[in-house]
Amino acid sequence: MNDPFPNEVDEVLWDEACRRAEAIRGFLIRQSGKVIAGDMALLAAELDVSRATAFRLIKLFRAGGTVMSLVERKPGRPDGRRMLDNRREEIIRISIKRCYLNKNRPGVSQLVRDIQTNCVSAGLKPPHRRTIEARLEDIDLQKRAKRRGEAEVVKRTTAVPGALAASRPLQIVQVDHTKADIFVVDEETRLPIGRPWLTLAMYVCSRMVTGFYLTMEAPSRLSTSLCLLHSVFDKSPWLRESARSSNRGRLPVCLRHCMSITAATLGVVLSRGGVRMPA
User: Fold this and answer.
1) Does 202 fall in a domain?
2) What are the DSSP calls for 155-209, one per residue?
3) 165 in any annotated domain
4) Helix (H) or strand (E) run with residue 211 in it
5) Is the pLDDT confidence value at 144 over 80?
6) Cβ neighbours of residue 87 under 8 Å, at least 6 residues apart?
7) Which residues does 37 contact at the CB level (< 8 Å), separation at least 6?
8) CB 202 within 8 A of CB 174
9) Same domain, 185 and 151
10) What is the helix (H) or strand (E) element at residue 212, kind and residue range?
11) Which of 78, 83, 101, 229 has a 20 to 30 A CA-CA distance from 266?
């Protein structure tokens, strides 16, 4: 199973991993020789974990060297991991193909009995009913319905022919909302506030954005109205302000966010230098 990317990690878990990485990095810099029990106890108290957990986190950080190595993983079995051996998986696969995916439409209970009987005959421990049901859920719903002759399900899962098309600009304008892939923090405490919502208006003919609205509030009539207002109003003042901001040497918000995540992951400290004139 692949590890998630930094921007896919929950905000709270990412902030805690950054805090742990900073504390452990400082601890390792201060420790030039053998680790003293008292220093380890102080680190454990700072991380709010037991000393055993502190040792484990140091080992993970030394092995990985990044913030991602300290992100807390969800306990239990990882999603998508299968625990059955290949022989039982093969019996389940063949039984589903031969006995379940056909026009006779046998029930799940009949399938479970067939699989368990085949496993016992092969000298294997029969799988649980929930395991077999999980394998059925992995099959594409439309494919399963076609093989079993379930016309109503096939009809519901088939895409309707046609497309939303426009022959001229501004004939059709679509408005949609999405959470921006950035994290807003408090100016003083630097604690995360949340991710803002981005509302975009674009016309279908060329997919050009005609206006947008950025807010911390959830999508509503107000955000849609302000987005449409930005679409139809003159943008000259807004463009002049954007040009002044870019002339101050500011990076786009999304680029600053990507740089901060990359720096935190690799343990790089970002420091902003002053504005200088070329020689």
Assistant:
1) yes
2) HHHSPPS-----SSTTSSEEEEEEE-S--EE-TTT--EEE--EEEEEEETTTTEE
3) no
4) strand 208-215
5) yes
6) 122, 124
7) none
8) yes
9) no
10) strand 208-215
11) 78
**Do 189 and 245 fall within a single domain?**
yes
b/e map of 180-216 (b: 16 or more CB within 10 Å)? eebbeeeeeeeeeeeeebbbbbbbbeeeeebbbbebe
Strand 197-203 and strand 184-185: the pairing is: unpaired
pLDDT: is 123 or 163 the higher one? 123
What is the pLDDT confidence band of residue 279, given thresholds at 50, 70 and 90? very low
| Residues 99 and 114 sit within 8 Å (Cβ to Cβ) | yes
- Token representation of residue 70: 């300290």
**Hey, what amino acid is at 143?**
K
16/252 Cα distance (integer angstroms): 26
* DSSP SS3 for 230: helix
Tokens of 204: 């279908």
- The answer on 105 and 190 residing in a single domain is no
Contacts of 44 (CB under 8 A, 6+ apart): 50, 51, 53, 54
Instruction: List the structure tokens of 175.
Output: 């408005």
The 3-state secondary structure of 64-131 reads HCCHHHHCCCCCCCCCCCCCCCHHHHHHHHHHHHHHHCCCCCCCHHHHHHHHHHHHHHCCCCCCCHHH
Contact 166, 204 (CB under 8 A): yes
Q: What is the DSSP letter of 140?
A: -
- The secondary structure element, H or E, covering residue 51 is helix 51-64
Q: Convert the pLDDT of each residue in 58-99 to its tens digit.
A: 888 888 777 777 877 766 565 666 778 899 999 999 999 988
CA distance 243 to 143: 53
Instruction: Give the 3-state secondary structure of residue 213.
Output: strand
